[in-house]
From TrEMBL:
<dbReference type="InterPro" id="IPR006183">
    <property type="entry name" value="Pgluconate_DH"/>
</dbReference>
<protein>
    <submittedName>
        <fullName>6-phosphogluconate dehydrogenase NAD-binding protein</fullName>
    </submittedName>
</protein>
<dbReference type="Pfam" id="PF03446">
    <property type="entry name" value="NAD_binding_2"/>
</dbReference>
<feature type="domain" description="6-phosphogluconate dehydrogenase NADP-binding">
    <location>
        <begin position="74"/>
        <end position="146"/>
    </location>
</feature>
<dbReference type="GO" id="GO:0004616">
    <property type="term" value="F:phosphogluconate dehydrogenase (decarboxylating) activity"/>
</dbReference>
<dbReference type="GO" id="GO:0050661">
    <property type="term" value="F:NADP binding"/>
</dbReference>
<dbReference type="InterPro" id="IPR036291">
    <property type="entry name" value="NAD(P)-bd_dom_sf"/>
</dbReference>
<dbReference type="InterPro" id="IPR006115">
    <property type="entry name" value="6PGDH_NADP-bd"/>
</dbReference>
């Protein structure tokens, strides 16, 4: 596939590297010659303004935004032609995503929001959007995160929303884990337990576990309720 990418930060470069490694072609809306030079060794990438890129893109035209927000993102919506799929991985309030979806739908375009979870252990994509748009961009999602590294959460807005819920879940797990460590320190075994080794083992063990089904069901229910309130249920 070919795709137009907006942005030139770390997230943009990381996503671009993964796409180029899977032979996707990128039209990059940037004047950052250093970025284009680094990525040029990896595959087909060319710097050009978005108006020119839209003329070059195959159908369906896919535009991936990593940095624009607010008025800039709103202005982008105005110039996108019918049939375009706008993918937005810039964190944004889910209600704003719903409004953008409605604006794009009026002109025959689609919106996909991607909540990005990235750290030294994993890359996960929480994806919101209608089924048609999701299926169109799925080859890109697979190239970026691999099989099992992305999750279609539901309609547009659900991706960023569930990413926020997942962050809350992780914070609660971390808080509980910290409490357990404190209990170990106050126990009669503290002098004989290597707490650092315990923390490392527990951390790695937890990272390898998928979220339990009951947690996913809870997150999905929360997303559904929120979307119903905003008129998408």
């Amino acid at each position: 596939m070919n795709i137009c990418m907006l942005g030139d930060g770390f997230e943009t470069e990381d996503i671009a590297r993964r796409l180029l490694a899977e032979d996707h072609c990128i039209y990059q809306d940037t004047n950052n010659s250093a970025l284009l030079g680094r990525l040029g060794f990896l595959g087909k990438i060319k710097g050009m303004e978005i108006q020119e890129a839209l003329e070059q893109l195959d159908e369906p035209k896919v535009v991936w935004n990593t940095e624009l927000s607010g008025r800039q993102l709103s202005a982008l919506v105005e110039i996108l032609p019918a049939g375009t799929i706008l993918v937005n991985s810039r964190a944004q309030y889910f209600a704003d995503n719903i409004q953008l979806t409605a604006r794009l739908a009026k002109k025959g375009a689609h919106y996909v929001d991607v909540g990005l979870a990235m750290d030294e252990y994993r890359l996960a994509l929480f994806v919101g959007g209608n089924q048609q748009a999701f299926q169109e961009v799925e080859p890109l999602l697979a190239a970026i995160a691999g099989d099992g590294g992305y999750y279609h959460c539901g309609p547009a807005g659900a991706g960023h929303f569930l990413r926020c819920m997942q962050q809350k879940y992780e914070a609660q797990v971390q808080s509980a884990f910290s409490g357990i460590v404190e209990e170990v320190r106050q126990s009669p075994f503290n002098d004989e337990i290597d707490v650092e080794a315990f923390v490392i083992f527990g951390h790695l063990y937890c990272k390898k576990q998928p979220l339990p089904n009951m947690v996913w069901q809870f997150l999905q229910a929360q997303a559904h309720n929120a979307l119903v309130v905003h008129g998408q249920g």
